[in-house]
Amino acid sequence: MTTESTAANTPTADRVHATEATEATLATEGVAAAPHLAPPRGPADRVALPPRRPAPVAPFTSSLVAADCVAVLLGALVLTDEQRGAGLLMQLTACLAALNAYAGLYRPGAIASVLDELPALAGRAALAWCAAAALLAAQSPPRAIGPAALVTAYGVHLAFVCACRAVLHHRRRAAARAHPRSALVVGPVPEAHRLAGTLAGHPEYGIRPVGVVSGHRVPGESSLPVLTTTEEIHRAVIQNGVRDAVFLGSEQAELVTLFSHYGCASWLVGGGDGGRTPMSQHLWGHEWRRLDPAPAHRGRLSKRVLDVAVAGLMLAALCPLLVLCAAAIRLSDGPGVIFRQQRVGQDGRLFTLLKFRTLRPADDEEAATRWSVAHDERMSAVGTFLRRTSLDELPQLWNVLRGDMSLVGPRPERPYFVAKFSRLHPGYAARHRMPVGLTGLAQVHGLRGDTSIEDRCRFDNHYIDHWSLWQDVCILLRTAASLIRPAGS
């Protein structure tokens, strides 16, 4: 088990105050500092993180699916009444839709040409028709489709699909030129401005840059606003109706996830993809492909099974130790053995975290906003021992059984600090894509106590982006090994 406490005047806390002081100085000197507005509160059980704005199903996508369904019906018209039964049509449609969806042929990607899609369309249509014909022949040999009829049906199908897609792509290009989508360009400011100029000179791509996302501002005039904080990105997305984010050269997993949270599509320009991009899907000669965030809920069932199994066994095995700790606290510090505190969990939901009480705070404000109570003179010898050995974290096994937490995940923090760190550190809010945990990748790398919030954030997002059940097992084993050498705070 791990702890997240540091001294009240630690270097980490100093960095927070220093950042705020720097912004105040910039404001007094007339320099535009990053706006840090306190995020609005949501429902009673949730801290309002950047609001999710799911992208609606595009009419373009619906039209492609409808074209495939109609093509199946037209192709079946050349067959006999006995051959084109409801079963054959359903099998064909389901098989074709699954193959095309897996290949990404229904996604509203970069502006494409039907000639680029023809090999993929032809191959999958042929596979679907051959599979349906083979299944029909196996079920009822007298109804088997002959080679001539099969080729004719396939030809009608493919011709109709190509004609429909040609019309849809033409209409989409016209709409993109007439109504370009607002976009943010992510990358160094000079390169971003050059790309913005290219897009302005070629409206056929349907993208209108409205801002640049960069790690820092550069001196001099800028034709586009430069955004350096999550709050500025939030404002730009909402005020300009941003629907796309264009990354220059390399992707940033945290920002890809953040833009996906807003319902924006992310694109990588000039990053290279091994030559798999169709020839027409380029941005004025630059390679151009869509980026997808890592799935947030993959393996959720297996992770939950591991949590319940391990937490249940540990609670049963450690029951005598839990009773002993509770008795020591009661005798040393009086009543109130369990300490309850609100923390931010997955997707910003609030939950009540349980710990053994090691110190009684002066009031609720101190409990909610004081960064740490480590080395506090009010702490008894029992409380100090529990914190150094991390035994005070054991009641959180009940949080795991309840589903508030997981065994492995980003450590949960109080709402006050979640709001503060989300403003100061891009990507901090993205830590809440998965359940919070008793221990995590950051903790087994020594990022406990007085350590960098930025480093913890990076480790937590890396864990989420590359999650596997085996990684959870490895982190648990490393945590168990670290408990032999207690280093809690």
Folded structure, characterized:
- By secondary structure, this protein is α/β, with parallel strands linked by helices.
- It folds into three domains: 59-175, no CATH class; 181-291, 3-Layer(aba) Sandwich (Rossmann fold), CATH 3.40.50; 298-482, no CATH class.
- Helix content is 49%, strand content 11%.
- It contains 17 helices and eleven strands.
- The chain has a seven-stranded mixed beta sheet with strand order 3-2-1-4-5-7-6. Strands 8-9 form a two-stranded antiparallel ribbon.
- Strand 1 (181-186), helix 6 and strand 2 (207-213) form a beta-alpha-beta unit.
- Helix 2 runs antiparallel to helix 3 (86-102), helix 3 (86-102) runs antiparallel to helix 4 (114-139) and helix 10 runs antiparallel to helix 12 (381-389).
- It is flat.
- The termini are close together.
- 35% of the residues are buried.
- Residues 1-48 and 274-280 have low confidence and may be disordered.
Number of strands: 11
> Whole-Å distance between the termini?
12 Å
How does the major sheet shape up?
Answer: 7 strands, mixed
On the 0 to 100 scale, the average pLDDT is 78
How many discrete structural domains? 3
Main attributes of the structure:
489 residues; alpha/beta; 7-stranded mixed beta sheet; two-stranded antiparallel sheet
Write the layout of secondary structure elements.
Elements: H1 11-28, H2 59-76, H3 86-102, H4 114-139, H5 147-178, E1 181-186, H6 189-201, E2 207-213, E3 226-227, H7 230-240, E4 244-248, H8 253-261, E5 265-269, E6 282-283, E7 286-291, H9 300-317, H10 319-333, E8 338-344, E9 350-356, H11 364-369, H12 381-389, H13 396-402, E10 406-408, H14 415-424, E11 437-439, H15 441-444, H16 453-465, H17 469-482
Parallel strand pairs: 1-2, 1-4, 2-3, 4-5, 10-11
Antiparallel strand pairs: 5-7, 6-7, 8-9
Helix pairs in contact: 2-3, 2-5, 3-4, 4-5, 9-13, 10-12
